[in-house]
Amino acid sequence: MTSPRAADLVITGCTVLVHDDEERIAFREDAAVVVRDGIVDAVIDAADAADAAGLGAVERLDARGQIAMPGLVNCHTHAPMVALRGIAEDLPTEEWFNDVVWPVESNLTGTDVELGARLACAEMIRGGVTCFADHYFAMDAVAAVVEECGIRAHLGQAYFSSQGPEGREASLEFALRHRGGAGGRITTALAPHAPYTVTDADLAATAGLARDHGLPVHLHAAENRDQTDTSLARHGVTPVEVLERTGLLDTDVLIAHGTGILERDLPVLARARGRVAVASAPRGYLKFAWPTTTPVRALREIGVPVGLATDGAASNNSLDVWESMALTALVQKSTTGDPRWLTSRQALHHATVQSARAVGLGQSIGRIAPGRRADIVLVDLTGPHTQPVHDLAATLVHSARSSDVRTTIVDGRILMRDRELLTLDVPAVVRELGARMPALLDRGHGRRIQEYDT
Q: How many C-beta neighbours within 10 Å does residue 228 have?
């Protein structure tokens, strides 16, 4: 039963993607979503909206013919790397890092990071992403952009062991300083880069800091099979086993990619069930011609949530989680040889409930239900590429596009209405970022921030 007080926002006439008590996907037709204080107050029949809350609501959205979905979560990205979109194409992973990306990143300034984050947030909001997990440098600038533009974010200041203890300390200071920021829209994590760039001692120290301060950890691990094979050859253990022996799997940890996870790693991850999640970004794996992908089916069977991600736009070329959802379903069918896996409803489950869990927000976002934060997107399925609709879940996963998102709402605040961004000025960002490109792209200095050697 809703309160007699007028609602802050009522979305009427839509079909709402909901979850039942067993987390199965369902669709409630001709419904209304009532929002108060940034929280979903109720999902009711549209006919009851006026009596319950629509009359006198501060804001009302007529969403007839649209689908209301939980906002998408980009579970692993490097948002400011949109500034490097397209600079390193058609290269193997080692050359991509050593010859182009890490030399260019040695030029980064806080202004570059801020502008990249602005452009990235605009792209994600327009694509129906309401929350992103970022792992990068100069993260104070990213936090400021998140505060201003209204999106939700899970942020970590990345570090390498080559930076000395200062890198790890800066990651901790950032996490403590910004935890709970932007009115609670910012959560934070410790962010060691990866087992191949961070020593076991530093990983163990990070695990200790995570336990002491109640912080999660977000890092790359077992990104590809080459990394796993090299770790076995050099150290006799897989990257996942490194995480276990350094204590990181005793903390809440988000593993980026995991295409190099082996069968021997599954019992290790199973022991960490409830604390570990994996983020999968299939488009980049295809571009790099990696021979394996994230073993979503095996992880699901041991109870490890897999969230959807894009990685950075320098490797993926976009921050389109909608595309990641469709690709995840298609790649999983191909790699398992089973057209019954991953179904459209399972893909939507990964895009909503599992992605929310992956970033530690499974109790507050990922569903449109009473008590959840009002992170909602409205999707228009009237275009010729989505008609007719015989199976709504399949239409959303395999026919709809990110450009079909009409409205994006975070914490009950409308950030995009009818495709118009309300909190970011894209032309101004593009002009300023363009002027900075010559200095940012210069590689004549011969420096790089790190060596890729796996």
A: 26
